[in-house]
Amino acid sequence: MQKFEYASPTTKEQAVALLGKSWGETEVLAGGTDLLSLMKDFIVTPKRVVNIKGIAELSLIRMPRNGSANIGALVTIEQLIDTLGRGFPAITDAAKGITSPQIRNMGTVGGDLLQRPRCWYYRAGFGLLPKGENGEPLVANGDNRYHAILGNDGEAKFVNPSSLAPALIALNAKIKIFGPAGGREVAADKFFVAPRSDSDREYTLEPNEIVMGISIPPTLGVRSATYEVRQKEALDWPLAAASVALTLDAAKKVKAARIALGHVAPTPWLAEAAAEYLTGKTINEDVAAEAGKIALAGAKPLSRNAYKVQLARVAVKRAILQAAG
Amino acid sequence: MAEYKWPEEGKRSHIGKRIKRLDGPDKVSGRAKYTYDLNRPGMLFGKVVRSPHAHAKIVSIDLSVAEKMPGVKAVKIIQGPGAEIQWAGDEIVVLAAETEGQAEDAARAVKIQYEKLPHFVNEQNWDAIPEANRRRPSEATAGDPAKAFKEADIVFEGSYGNEVITHCCLESHGLIAEWEDDKNLLVHQSTQSVSANGPQFAQALGIPAGNVRLKMEHIGGGFGSKFPVDRWGIEAAKLSKLAGGKPIKLMLERDSELMVAGSRPSVFAKVKVAAKKDGSITGWESEVWGSGGVGNFSFAGLLPYVFRAGVENRKEKFSVIGTNTGPQRAWRAPNHPQACLITMSAFDDLAAELKMDPLDLFLKNIALTGTRANVYRDELMKAAEMIEWKKMWRPRGEGAPGSTKYVKRGLGLSLHTWGGGGHASDCDLTIHPDGSVELKMGTQDLGVGTRTVLAIVAADTLGLPLDAVKVHIGDNRYPVSSGSGGSTTVGGVSSSTRRASIDALNALFEKVAPAMNTTAGKLEAVGGKIQEIGKPTNSMTWKQACAKLGTQPLTTRGKNPGKETLTTAGVGGVQMADVSVDIETGIVKMNNFVAVQDCGLIIDMKTAESQVFGAMIMGVTFALFEEKVMDAQTGRMLNPNMEFYRLAGLADIGNFKVHMMTGKGYDERGVIGVGEPPTVSPGAAISNAVANAIGVRVPSIPLTPDRVLAALEKKGGASAKI
Prior knowledge:
The complex is a heterodimer.
Chain A: E1 5-7, H1 12-18, E2 26-29, H2 35-40, E3 48-51, E4 61-62, E5 69-72, H3 77-84, H4 89-96, H5 101-106, H6 109-114, H7 120-126, H8 138-141, H9 165-170, E6 174-179, E7 182-187, H10 188-191, E8 210-216, E9 223-229, E10 240-248, E11 254-262, E12 269-270, H11 272-278, H12 285-295, H13 307-324
Helix pairs in contact in A: 3-4, 11-12, 12-13
Chain B: H1 24-29, E1 44-50, E2 56-62, H2 64-67, E3 72-77, E4 84-85, E5 91-97, H3 100-109, E6 111-116, E7 138-142, H4 145-151, E8 154-162, E9 165-166, E10 174-179, E11 185-189, H5 194-205, E12 212-215, H6 231-242, E13 248-251, H7 254-260, E14 263-264, E15 267-275, E16 281-290, E17 314-320, H8 336-353, H9 358-364, H10 373-387, H11 389-392, E18 407-420, E19 425-431, E20 437-440, H12 450-462, E21 469-472, H13 489-512, E22 523-526, E23 529-532, E24 535-541, H14 542-547, E25 554-560, E26 569-582, E27 587-598, H15 605-624, E28 655-661, H16 682-694, E29 700-701, H17 705-714
């Protein structure tokens, strides 16, 4: 591991003052379940590590009676599951999909959103947009069985690894951010981007900003669910996942729908056309399957991952059926 | 002269009982120290600089920066300029520093220039294998295969395969080497052969064999990959000398463990089976290729697996494919799981083609298995009863009871065999005048219960409780016992222990007989007493008897092989799997998995069953998850970690049931090892169950969603494509 300076601020103002102006100089430490491995493998080599665990307000949870929720970035996945109870099934389904008890106990909500891609070329040191010695793209020509099937036109071919992001997007959550200029909020679906260079990140956060937490609008009357297609029940990332939030009218027809996919694109993927298709319909298996098809209409599989199109369709279908109950 | 045999069923006080392993509490509490856990005084940390290239020539090595790094105590080139590297991960330089971090920093500061050469790492597709990588095939013909195929009612053709997998020992390979003085080396090593490795160090280092002390208390997995001393192990000993004899700890990192510490060859096969309408198999033809990386391996004499003895008309071709990946090593029942997968899949497909229940087809052909046909028949019937085969089995693709629109359930079966027997083993059994008993043997407990078995045999023979026997193993100063391979350990070590115990007891009888007014031949040891046979009132407690030894403890040397045989070779086993396949996602889940196994006389029922459970877990992993993924572009392994090198967790394995065959027909065969046989069938049984569930064969293992969906789509099985 490269030597680094370690800072342990106790306020958000101190924290952002310690962060660098460009990515890579500094890294933020929370649960450390991802950062430590990245540092040990020299995938990231920060000069300064800023431990934010001393900032008390980042651990707060507020759940007013209107059905909304404010969750601090440092809340662990296990605390999140315990706290949310049955009110936000899309989120708790996704959180329970993190099947490693160690990661659930150490890993945080903020860390889940900001963890780096699991792409095996990236993790082997070939870069975020992995290239060989002569600059040839490694994913497109290589073993891309776990890579993106949507939004993969650019150089980024990895999939966003966040478990919670699709659920937060489906529930119209906002990401709360703090930086030198003060606080701001970004809609969860606008938070993530596909990087264009190795030195970019996979989110719109600025290098000197920190994620404070998430804010979920009132969910009373919203039926939600997350379905993960996963090969293993024990520690494993999903091959494809979908989160769905539905509001039904008295006749059980869909009034509003939001669908987001995970593990299929360099960002969590908002499936707007599929959601629109659902609006006004009564949910049944055929309708759900059709929504899955529409959600994946733009899929462009790479050489080895066409199977993921089917998996993502099924994830959408099953999440819809699960949400509709 | 003493007579050496195992006690009759009614006379066994510990043998065959369900006894918890003696070192269990130490292991679960963390008191048990593995090589990885040990830290020696003044210890340095070793790191190996490895080739990032799969095929390259070393042009130059610059150690100047590394040597001056803080804490660095010794640096040594393993392969110098001019050497041709054949796989990514091969060792180039080894160095040692005061902390692990310093050693890693120094390793990164070593500058090596390579001249890259073309590499080849993917052997799955025969047509894409360059001629240069196809080593000369071996071919064999027996009987008249042409005639058999011509006269067959049905000729079934199929293709099957499995990927290279690794041993993935949870405790990685490694050692601590230190020089006690100029001429004496002490090694703590994670190894399957405590007694045999000393001489390997001695020879390589030019010191007498007796000058190497080798110790190992506990080992976290070997599976066949931890026999010889690796080149880097010898280099660590040399490095220790350079560092003034200080202990150097060199354990492989997880990625190295998966890249260089051994693997099991892939095997791919095109198979033809000739049969009669009634399912009788009359001929076999196979073209097989596979890769053990840069290493060689042989597949001769195995196909058709288990049934070979009776299938007289055979034609076989086998080609080894050389790839630029690390060499293969023995992996629990080398070559058998692959041979089993090919054979049992083909026979199962044949049964489906003939619209037969595969259980009937296997029973129909059971005589072809040769001498153990009756064992297999009994085991098939037992396994079928345990998994309720007749109630649950449905023809291929119809779905067993419990199937739904998208989740199809299926059953599959497989047969396997293995040798076992007992390896060479010496031990010393000492009875002390205070009544305590010690057993010393240069064997090792691979986590399978060897310590426990030794205590059971000695205590049973001496009529003592288990805790009366102190077992010392894991040190090459103890009498020599062979490496643990081929499932020969329990046969070897229990035989020598039994002989030593019988001899010691007879010697003790001689000592005490005069005081009991009888002769040694009329005495027996039962329940902590020495007593006259048929006259138990004439007795002496064990302690009183041992006091008659005076001041001199009584030590006997037990040997194997020896007079009379206490072990034999050859076992059979049957496994049946019950799976559910989600035909929308291609995900396979285990429901029930049944194993029926024979292994002669069982010393400890609990640890024997545990061996089978462990094998089944490894087998589920092989069938569903494992693959050493090699990248064609970079020549590197893409998944040298526990994230993408997937191992089954407890939630993935379903319900296991194990039945050990015991009693008449089994016990009298003596003690036979069971470490390997139950690892053989899972791939085949699970693959067959999946085929039964979804109506088509998924041709190669692991049965991952992409492969399952591709098979469903290609052959028009129960596809549920959206």
